[in-house]
C-alpha cells in the first residue's frame, strides 16, 4: 500500500483517508456532539417545512431555549439540592429542560401566528425571531453575569458495560452513539420515529398532503390551518432540545450567540437531506464531521508531508469548514432538491358561498 502514498496529489489524499479511518474511534464522539444540535434543529425545520411553513428562525428558537434552560436550571438549583441520579439527572436540570422546550414552543407559536394567521412573509418572521433572540439573550446574560447564579451542572452519559464498548469493530461506534446524554439519545429516537411516521402513519400522510397541495387536502376533510399550527408548535420541541443540549448537556454555561449559526446549518442539512428525517440526520453528520476534522488536525496532526501541509493551513480555515460546507451544499443541491410544493405559501380558506 505504501506505493500509493507516493503518487503525487492522489497519494496525499489516500494518506488523508487512512489518517481519518485510523482515528475514527477518537474523533467519533466529537462528531456526534457536533451533530446533535444540528440534527435536532433540522427536525424542527422538518416539522415546519413539510407542513408548508418556512422557518429560518430555528437559530433564534435554539438560542432562546439555550438561555432559558441554563438560567432556569441554575435558579432551581439554588433552591433545590438533590444528588444526581442516572445520567446526571437532577430536578433542576429536568425543570430547565422542560422550560427550554416551553420557551421554544412559545416562540414557534408566535412564528405560526405570523405565518399562518397573519400571513406575513415567513422569511421576515424568522429573521425577526433570530434578531430578537440574539439581542434579548445577550442583554439578559449581560445583566445576569454581574451576579451569576451557581451552575446546575449538566446531564451525564448513559453508562454502557465495558464488555460492549470493547467489542471489536463496533464497540467504539456504540460508545459514540449510545454512551451519550439523554438529549443526544432523544435525537436518535426522534429521527427514527419521525422517519417512520412520515411515511407510515395517517399524520405523515396528512402532513405531506398539506405541504404539497393544501387545497386538495382541505377538500378531503383535513384542517390545513390546524395541522400547520400543531406541527409548527410541536417543531419547537426539537429546537428546545437543541438549545438545551448546548447549555445543560454539552456544557454547563451560556454565552451570548453560542448557537453560532447552527440553526442555519440545520436548515441546510434539511435541504441536503431532501426534507426527510434520515436524510437530514445524514447531512448533520457530514457537518459534524467537519468539526471533528478540525479538532483532530489541531490536537493530533498526521506525520510527514501530509501533516506539514495540514498544519500549515490556518486553524481559522478548519473552524470555517461547517459554514463552507453549508455554502457548497446550498449552491450545489438547492436546484436539484425538490421542496414541498406549498412551502412558504400562506394558505387562505376559500369563503363558503350560499
Number of helices in the DSSP assignment: 17
The N- to C-terminal Cα distance equals 81 Å
**Known CATH architecture:** Orthogonal Bundle
CATH topology: ABC transporter involved in vitamin B12 uptake, BtuC
Q: How many domains?
A: 1
SSE order, as H and E?
HHHHHHHHHHHHHHHHH
- What overall geometry do the principal axes of the alpha carbons give? globular
Question: What is the arithmetic mean of pLDDT?
Answer: 90
For this structure, what is the CATH class?
A: Mainly Alpha
Largest sheet: none
What's the topology here?
Elements (H helix, E strand, L loop, with lengths): L1 H4 L4 H13 L1 H26 L8 H22 L11 H27 L4 H23 L17 H4 L5 H7 L4 H19 L1 H11 L1 H6 L4 H25 L13 H11 L4 H23 L4 H9 L2 H5 L1 H13 L21
Helix pairs in contact: 3-8, 3-9, 3-12, 3-13, 3-14, 4-5, 4-6, 4-12, 4-13, 5-6, 5-12, 9-10, 9-12, 13-14, 13-17, 14-17
Amino acid at each position: 500500500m505504501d506505493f500509493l502514498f507516493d503518487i503525487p496529489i492522489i497519494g496525499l489524499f489516500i494518506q488523508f483517508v487512512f489518517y481519518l479511518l485510523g482515528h475514527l474511534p477518537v474523533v467519533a464522539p466529537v462528531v456526534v456532539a457536533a451533530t446533535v444540535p444540528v440534527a435536532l434543529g433540522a427536525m424542527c425545520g422538518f416539522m415546519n417545512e413539510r407542513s408548508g411553513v418556512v422557518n429560518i428562525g430555528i437559530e433564534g428558537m435554539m438560542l432562546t431555549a439555550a438561555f432559558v434552560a441554563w438560567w432556569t436550571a441554575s435558579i432551581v438549583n439554588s433552591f433545590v439540592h438533590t444528588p444526581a441520579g442516572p445520567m446526571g439527572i437532577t430536578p433542576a436540570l429536568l425543570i430547565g429542560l422542560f422550560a427550554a422546550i416551553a420557551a421554544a414552543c412559545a416562540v414557534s407559536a408566535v412564528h405560526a401566528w405570523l405565518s399562518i394567521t397573519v400571513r406575513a412573509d415567513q422569511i421576515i418572521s424568522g429573521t425577526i425571531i433570530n434578531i430578537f433572540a440574539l439581542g434579548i439573550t445577550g442583554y439578559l446574560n449581560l445583566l445576569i453575569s454581574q451576579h451569576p447564579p451557581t451552575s446546575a451542572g449538566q446531564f451525564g452519559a448513559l453508562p454502557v458495560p465495558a464488555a460492549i464498548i470493547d467489542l471489536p469493530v463496533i464497540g467504539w461506534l456504540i460508545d459514540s452513539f449510545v454512551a451519550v446524554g439523554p438529549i443526544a439519545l432523544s435525537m436518535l429516537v426522534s429521527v427514527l420515529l419521525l422517519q417512520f411516521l412520515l411515511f407510515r402513519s395517517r399524520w405523515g400522510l396528512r402532513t405531506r398532503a398539506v405541504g404539497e397541495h393544501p387545497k386538495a387536502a382541505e377538500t378531503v376533510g383535513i384542517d390545513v390551518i390546524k395541522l400547520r399550527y400543531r406541527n409548527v408548535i410541536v417543531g419547537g420541541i426539537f429546537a428546545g432540545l437543541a438549545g438545551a443540549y448546548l447549555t445543560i448537556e454539552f456544557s454547563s454555561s451560556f454565552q451570548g450567540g453560542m448557537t453560532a449559526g447552527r440553526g442555519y446549518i440545520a436548515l441546510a442539512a434539511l435541504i441536503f437531506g431532501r426534507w426527510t428525517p434520515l436524510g437530514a440526520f445524514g447531512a448533520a453528520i457530514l457537518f459534524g464531521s467537519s468539526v471533528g476534522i478540525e479538532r483532530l488536525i489541531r490536537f493530533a496532526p498526521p506525520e510527514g508531508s501530509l501533516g506539514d501541509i495540514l498544519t500549515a493551513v490556518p486553524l481559522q480555515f478548519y473552524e470555517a469548514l461547517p459554514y463552507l460546507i453549508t455554502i457548497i451544499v446550498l449552491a450545489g443541491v438547492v436546484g436539484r432538491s425538490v421542496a414541498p410544493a406549498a412551502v412558504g405559501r400562506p394558505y387562505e380558506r376559500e369563503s363558503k358561498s350560499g
